[in-house]
């Protein structure tokens, strides 16, 4: 079972690497790892288990966050329409996205970041993601709102990007748009 001891924190170079594609069909080892990541996220949202094992509640975790530089992540999150997205995904890819952007009110947090970093993190409002589930099924997911933001946060981890990188980018963009 994964605990916070397995979660690497900012400063670890693995969080800055471009993760490698997972060979499909996934090996037993990769599937077991992804299942353990999904279990971790589910457990972290259970108040009793979270307290017992000192888990920080999270809605997603990407393989680089446990020191494995492979393109896979797990999410367990309920959208605004009360639909639960609970899955592990291999080699996820954004195949299209809205022009419109959004952000999470109150900013984003990350299991690999032990400090509060305020600021809006710009994200696409809607994305279409292709990938292969833990069960080996090829899927195309059309996502919006919170779930779309969570997927983009986890996808960033596979490309060595931390959420706060985008806060800076946002500030720079605003600066450019303002009259000098
Ligand atoms: Zn994160």
TrEMBL record:
Catalytic class of the enzyme: hydrolase
Species this chain originates from: Halalkalibacter wakoensis JCM 9140
Function field: Removes the formyl group from the N-terminal Met of newly synthesized proteins. Requires at least a dipeptide for an efficient rate of reaction. N-terminal L-methionine is a prerequisite for activity but the enzyme has broad specificity at other positions.
Name this polypeptide is given: Peptide deformylase
This protein's record includes keyword Zinc: no
Residues annotated as catalytic: 154
PANTHER family the UniProt entry points to: PEPTIDE DEFORMYLASE (PTHR10458), PEPTIDE DEFORMYLASE 2 (PTHR10458:SF8)
A single GO BP: translation
Gene from which the chain derives: def
Record note on cofactor: Binds 1 Fe(2+) ion.
Cofactor(s), names only, from the UniProt record: Fe(2+)
Enzyme Commission designation: 3.5.1.88
């Amino acid at each position: 079972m994964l605990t916070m001891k397995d979660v690497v924190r900012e400063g670890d170079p693995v969080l800055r690497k471009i993760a490698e594609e997972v060979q499909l069909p996934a090996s037993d080892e990769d599937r077991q790892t992804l299942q353990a990541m999904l279990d971790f996220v589910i457990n972290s949202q259970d108040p009793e288990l979270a307290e017992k094992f000192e888990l920080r509640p999270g809605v997603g975790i990407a393989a680089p966050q446990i020191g494995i530089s492979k393109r896979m992540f797990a999410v367990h999150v309920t959208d605004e329409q009360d639909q639960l997205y609970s899955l592990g995904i291999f080699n996820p890819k954004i195949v299209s996205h809205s022009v419109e952007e959004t952000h999470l009110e109150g900013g984003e947090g990350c299991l690999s970041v032990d400090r509060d970093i305020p600021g809006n993190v710009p994200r696409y409002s809607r994305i279409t993601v292709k990938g292969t589930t833990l069960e080996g099924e090829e899927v195309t997911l059309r996502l919006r709102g919170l779930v779309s933001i969570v997927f983009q946060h986890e996808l960033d981890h596979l490309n060595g990007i931390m959420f706060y990188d985008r806060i800076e980018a946002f500030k720079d963009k605003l600066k450019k748009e303002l009259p000098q």
